[in-house]
Please model this.
Amino acid sequence: MERADWDEDVRTRVHTLTEAITYSVFLYTSQGLFERDKLTFLSHTAFQMALKQGLIDAQEFDFLLRFHVEACKVSPVSFLSPHAWGAIKTISTMEGFVGLDKDMESSPKRWRKIVESSCPEKERLPHDWKNKSSLQKLIIFRALRPDRITYTLRSFVEESMGAKYVDAARLEFDKLYEESSSSTPVFFILSPGVNPLKDVEKLGLKLGFSIEQGTLRNVSLGQGQEEVAERALGSASKLGHWVILQNVHLVARWLPSLDALLETAAVNSHQNYRVFITGEPASSPEHHVIPRGILESAIKITNEPPTGMNASLHAALNHFNQDTLDMCSREQEFNSMFFSLCFFHACVTERRKFGPQGWNQNYPFSTGDLTISASVLYNYLEANTKSMQVPWEDLCYLFGEIMYGGHITDGWDRRLCKTYLQEFMHPKMFEGELFLCPGFLSPPFMDYSGYHGYIDEHLPSENPTLYGLHPNAELDCLSVTSDDLLRTLMELQPQASCRGEGSAQSTDEEKVKSVIEEILEKLPEEYDMAEIITKTTKRSPYISVCFQECERMNLLLAEIRKSLHELDLGLKGELTISSSMETLQTALFNDCVPESWARLAYPSTKTLAQWFNDVMCSCRELDSWTQDLVLPAVVWLSGLFNPQSFLTAVLQSIARKNQWPLDKMTLTVDVTKKTKDDFGHPPREGAYVHGLFMEGARWDTQSGIISEAILRDLTPAMPVLYVRAVPAEEQELRNTYECPVYRTKQRGATYVWTLHLRTKQPPARWIVAGVALLLSV
Model:
């Protein structure tokens, strides 16, 4: 349990009111990630203090947040990726980092130790680099080990503000209650899988407040319960009772009334009167509904759910007892399957922390799913006592399609859930030969306390392989978290905050003007569709795709040109600055793709500079294609607005040529051993495509199969793929993995197609590893 209110010492060290309330705002945009957002608040405060005291360089701080770097084609240092080396080359051009790239090339062993360390932030940098400031070390680590930025930031905050702000203070609810009063409610920020009201009810019984005695009123808001809550508050304030208001986020329109009511009820109230409120954090700042008055007056508390497989597995077992294990007549079978069910529950709930590679969507798996599934398991085993057979398929269907599967809306997530159950619910568990995860055998028959002891003794330490994922999944997850944190810090900065007084750096408007000039200078003209259409009288499926892509590109180019011209006139004072122009200006300043442009383009998670470079590459591809309307030798699938349309065109062209029914055909793919430059013309049938990356594994070019990923190579590029169409009954599906293709790492709604890739390993291995192909990384 952590209290969100900081002591007066913090308040005196925060310079502005905006900074003072930052933490409260983040609590309601945290999406359950309390620790990350606490670090965001602390980092923001520490950096602002250091900037105002002149302890860090404003330009270096600006570079850390924006990190404008470009990947090199190759890296001369074996332990650095082309992107990391490109970052080092960019950093080496800055005043305080001259010679960094040369030092890495001349002393690779010392730097390799840093890159490959499990805790690089605790290592000393080689040579004179160890004397660099904390901010300069942060910049170096963002290039070498972006996954460790959050830990490096902790060290920075500890050095700047003191260790007590980083170390989480674990306080008992009894002590926190002492700080509440009739005018100071307690606000619980809900976390998934945690019920904070147990502490309230436990303390209430101890102090003489309970529902049975009529001194505690529990109101679950929603469905017209507002009037009930109002009466409860009025009565409790006079009689000195406790009131619990659950899920206040569900009644957003009533919250201003609640704010006023809490203030009124506290006037001349009984000294024992207390109010306890629960609410979920908002998914984004736009959805923030809790009035500031409630936030400022309340003590804000959050209970973090258990993290890690060990804690989650113990927590799953804690919902049961020895009586649960004794109730089934088929005791040995029930116990073994019951433990696997608990392991499955811990696995699917903890997998959420790996983001889209864990689950395409977020699902509210709860202990209710586990307890009901345990009851179903008991009933089915008791109903089959005569045959003594375990209905494996029935149980996996009930758990995977109804109990847990009832939450799942994505087909690929449903496949993952079913695969987990098939791996965990298996006859081998009765023979002691079933590994629930690498190094962890399904336990033998034992009692309740024995299972807890077995977990502590045999479960491996926390790592992604416990869930079937590659260790890269954790590196990727930490890197994404670090990027999000730094992006949030950048958005919090006033646009002039990264410049000192009298700085020679251009003003914000001048910086935006330079971006506008650069984009307009490079922006190509729109395609003359009338001229292009006259080049052919025959519209093949491929030509239709070409026309559609040109039309989509024209819409995007026109919007970019129009919006930039308007903003340019606005900055010159010739037009009134509108809200849309302000939004565009902010996006350009922050190197983000403006929303008005993104709506007309394809999904992307790249910065504006990277995104615009992709747009220019797409235009060059279309220039080549529209020149003679002949299919390019190798199509850059990632650069198409609608890759599904192109893949459908492959089906259509071959179906027409061979007079096959389109609805009985399917795409098949052969992964070549070549790169784009090795092809001079397109194939006779189908198409060569490139621009795909694999996440969760890698493609072994020599063996022609999916293989285990290489550590720290998160998304290796795929060779050129030969895509063609065949009758569905002729497609070879043996020893293949049904691999989804997505636009971005966000997966989910960015789904494009499904390709069958060769594998010698069982497909289940790649399913639980979250292996997919991506068009953009």
The radius of gyration is 30 Å. The CA atoms of residues 317 and 342 lie 7 Å apart. Residues 1-35, 497-506 have pLDDT under 50 and may be disordered. The first helix runs from residue 8 to 13.
